[in-house]
Write a structure and sequence with these properties.
single chain, 139 residues, mainly alpha, 3 helices, rod-shaped
Length: 139
């Protein structure tokens, strides 16, 4: 019985850490960059997460589900652990939508930064033209 109790505790800790990690990834993915540097950094980080971290998390969720079913055969599982297990599966299923929203945020901010850059170039062009005309006027 003690052996199963320790598996139960480990199950709780694993489920809690998985949910926490998914929430952290989601929060980062849905954040809005305020500069081009942050934009590129966030895009690179989320590409790495999508490529490496999320497949590992999916494997951990699948393993957690197997352990959950095993432990449930030997003892009653508390609603808290059941809820955490359910949340980990829900996060796993929700991540494609989070990543889709992340891509939309990145694209929107990229266009905003490009437009701001065009405006800055336009202002610089007008200012340099003005300066040239003032210099010619003074000469």
């Amino acid at each position: 019985m003690t052996k199963h109790f320790f598996k139960y505790i480990k199950l709780f800790c694993t489920a809690y850490s998985l949910v926490d990690e998914y929430e952290s990834i989601s929060e980062k993915a849905l954040s809005t960059p305020t500069s081009t540097e942050q934009l590129f950094q966030l895009k690179e980080e989320m590409d790495a997460v999508e490529e490496k971290v999320l497949p590992e998390l999916q494997d951990k969720v699948a393993e957690l589900l197997k352990k959950y079913i095993f432990v449930a055969d030997y003892m009653q599982i508390s609603p808290i652990v059941s809820k955490l297990q359910l949340q980990s599966v829900q996060w796993c299923n929700r991540m494609p939508f989070v990543l889709e929203e992340h891509r939309a945020i990145i694209e929107k901010k990229k266009l905003e930064f490009q437009d701001a850059l065009k405006v800055n170039f336009s202002i610089d062009d007008h200012y340099s033209t003005y300066l040239k005309s003032r210099i010619l006027f003074l000469c």
